[in-house]
Amino acid sequence: MKIFIIDLYYSRFLDNFYEKCPEMINKNYEQQKKTLFSECFGTADFFSKNLKKLGHQAKEIILNNEILQKQWAKEHKTKYFKGYFKNFPKLNKYFLSNWEEKILEEQIKEFAPDIIYCQSVYKPGKKFLNKIKKYTKLTVAQTAYKLPNKKYFEPYEPYDLIISSLPNQVQLFRDLGKNSEYLKLAFESTILNKVKKFKNGYNVTHIGGYGSIHNERNEVLEKVAKKINTDFWGYSIDNLNENSIIRKTYCGEKWGIDMYNILYNSKITLTKHIEKVAGDYANNMTLYEATGCGCLLITDFKNNLGDIFEIGKEIETYKSSDELIEKIQYYLTHEDERKKIVEAGQKRTLKDHTYEIRMKELMDIFNKYL
Fold it and tell me: Could you tell me what percentage of the chain is helix, strand and coil, using 3-state DSSP and rounding each to the nearest 5?
């Protein structure tokens, strides 16, 4: 089977990558993509690599990487608009904004996939998806967000199938007349071959966003930081008050393998789901990244956590800031118990939650709908 995966990267990561590796701008398409994937950002090539292990053909493209996509167009002599209507601003703006779809359509036509798998529901968009259905057998979207209500359903309409890592959303999509299946998130086990031990590790860490959507989590982290020395990394730090205690031990942004190295060298890492995004269900990458890298994960309690990990034996949970602080203090002073949970959590992730396992599950889903 041939699977074409459309991914989107954070623009901040892409900017950081090309600033760090400016020579990549002049490299060919495959060299750029290989180096990007080696950074292990997001799902990198974890889908395609593990689908290939199963005997399938798979290709991932990074839709919003203008440098990379236009390099592909150059190598494949694909024509896209370059600004020939400079004297006609409205016309110029339309064509300049359309390079993503023009290049993407040629990539799809060249690969001739059985399945198009979109990591974002909103891109490449409803109009484009309806246009390219003739080039494939099945269009699939992956979502990890809670649908607020029915009026937000329109972007999902053109897809033949919706894959969700939120179990409650699967039934919602089915009730709205859309094929939907549940698939958990995962950890890429080969990352353990790339991480390195630091001379000095970290006791307690948090890696994530600090923007306005994260304010409910920021409040919890502020309370922790007042009592326990915690190291913070992440984006949107400008949202925090200038006097925020998080700023005192904020260490900047870390992406991909640099993020995994922090987790690998942490005794404890913290997370909290965003209510607007996840609701009452466990659904973030840190669950798998932290346990996979071998540090103690302490996360907020969610209804389905017990289906993913054994609470108290493979991970720890909390229901209030006070309980979180109490558990951090406990496990910092009870090293043997912490290590026992860490070992069990990593063993569970490597047994049940790797991308190799997920791709087998994903192919079972695809076969059901094809």
Answer: 50, 15, 35
